[in-house]
Amino acid sequence: MNPEQIREAHNRQIEKIRNRQDLSHQAKQVAMARAHQSTVTKLESMRQADRQQYDERRTQLEKRLFGNRELSGTDALSARDARERAASYTHPDEAHAAYKRAQRDGDRDMMRALGSWAADQAAMPILGEAWRPLVETHAAATPGYAQNLEELRSLQEPGQFGDNSYATPAVPDELGRMSPYQVSALAESDLTIYGNDAPEAA
Question: Which of 34, 39, 32 is nearest to 9 (CA)?
């Protein structure tokens, strides 16, 4: 079930409670508060699960693209040195020339470091455009890099500004202008809702 389906199910449930003739106004309020609170919990759980999946995939892709193997000793020092040297290049043409030299010499650490540095710079608005050729060069020289980079760029962080996927439904009119805290407190009241569909309503 996706967020939209959860909201649709919530609206159906609220309407069902609203139309019950056997419930008092207070009982309807409690039932609606419980339905609303349940929907809020479901949407938040889904957002957290999607966020975790996003974080895990992003970490996996970044490690594939920019990370070094599990290194120790001189290999680790070499990789760190390469990253420091790569970060010293402030002009994309100079960095590109350094990449070509590293490629010619078979220096994979420097190639990886320069590719990573270029990708970071390329992510900047406007100024980053000049770094894209180096990113493309590294992509062409590294099996699977282009596909992984494309996927990384296309990843959308769940729940960011402008993403209404996990928006909670409006509080039912019967609950007036209750705050989320008041709705939650009402949902936790001891009132038992009776009826043939009580478990769904309450």
Answer: 39
